[in-house]
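Changelog-linked ticket: manganese (II) ion example.
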Amino acid sequence: MVENSAKSVLVVEDNPANMELAVDLLEVGGFRTLQAATAEEGIHMARTERPSLILMDTGLPGMDGLQATRLLKQDPQTASIPVIALTAQAMEGDREKTLAAGCLGYITKPIDTRTFAQTITLFLSAQRS
Ligand code: MN
């Protein structure tokens, strides 16, 4: 397995508590992290920083996470970066909505602290194969 230390994860999340938890868990898991609190900032950082993976909150102020994902997938500069949705809703149909927007998968909030970093590692290995 490729070491996580070579991997960077951009977290796009407007809730400071969720951001802190996600970043802490990713860093304990060995990832480097980048942070953005809005979709616009996240898109800018995706283009300039080229993260290994993007965790995208679906509920953001202004442009929402699914629209941001569509824009990232339309842009040849960022289309190949896997996007995982972070969604508060665990409702039927949400998986389809995230996949239709171009997300590789989704993680439901509240974040499961025991499995979160490992889930990101698994998404990254799935993307490579
Ligand atoms: Mn949010």
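Closing comment: Example verified and attached. The first strand starts at residue 8 and ends at 12. The chain has one domain: 8-128.
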